[in-house]
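Notes from the 1:1 (GR / supervisor)

We went over the backlog. Supervisor wanted to see one worked example end to end before approving the batch request, so GR pasted a single chain during the call. The sequence is below; no edits were made to it. Supervisor asked that the structure be written out right there so they could see what the output format looks like.
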Amino acid sequence: MTELEKELRSAVGHRVGAHARPRVFDYVDALPRNDVGKLQRAKLRLRG
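Structure output shown during the call:
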């Protein structure tokens, strides 16, 4: 676990309960967006 992941877990843990905390952090260079600029969530799901 990297130092960044530890910081993210700690920050999220203070805001939400342990059951809602992400187990895995996935890093991407850029988020997939359509021509209008909306986030393409389906493409994010396909990566996983």
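Supervisor's comment: Residues 3-15 form the longest helix (13 residues).
Batch request approved.
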